[in-house]
Design a protein that fits this description.
Layout: H1 3-22, H2 41-50, H3 52-60, E1 63-65, H4 79-99, E2 108-113, E3 116-122, H5 123-147, H6 162-170
Parallel strand pairs: 1-2
Antiparallel strand pairs: 2-3
Length: 171
């Protein structure tokens, strides 16, 4: 199996899980956080929705220099907007990944802030890290939603609460 094919399978699998989780965010809980210094649901969910865009950035650029590229997250105010933002970033990243050549994955990509180099890796590593970040932040979001007594979907197999959620949606 080629590397791109493996990335596409994992990207698709994570996207399916993310969709189920993002749909469960109540519109009135976007600013909720468990402690004052914690990130809000809005912050984590928006970051999850933008992370597929790192696949696009990894494939189309030689790096990201924070000193020259100020990044601001989109301002999500509801779950419909959030899902649309995720779907756009996912579709763009997936399309470019599916069309990429294996040779591109071996090219170098650098993350920096001016003269400070944080990392120089291959574009394949950027894609792998992006997918891993999606998973990591999905877990964080799950913990926040569980703190609000919101039933979580199963990730890689049906979860214990999956049937309960499906019954709630049918009522």
């Amino acid at each position: 199996m080629e590397i791109i094919e493996m990335f596409l399978e994992e990207f698709d699998r994570e996207a399916a899980i993310i969709r189920k989780m993002l749909k469960r965010i109540p519109n009135d809980k976007y600013d909720w956080k468990p402690r004052p210094k914690s990130m809000s649901i809005r912050c984590i969910a928006t970051h999850i929705a933008e992370l597929p865009g790192w696949v696009t950035m990894g494939l189309t650029t030689g790096g990201l220099d924070f000193a020259n590229n100020l990044f601001e997250s989109a301002a999500m105010t509801n779950t419909t907007e959030l899902l649309a933002y995720f779907e756009k970033n996912f579709a763009d990243g997936r399309k470019l990944l599916a069309a990429a050549s294996e040779d591109v994955l071996h090219q170098k990509w650098t993350l920096s802030n001016g003269d400070a180099i944080f990392m120089t890796n291959t574009k394949a590593d950027v894609i792998r890290v992006s997918i891993c970040q999606i998973t990591q932040h999905r877990v964080q979001l799950g913990m926040l939603l569980q703190s609000l007594n919101i039933t979580m979907p199963g990730s890689y197999a049906p979860g214990a609460n999956e049937m309960e959620f499906e019954l709630q949606e049918q009522e």
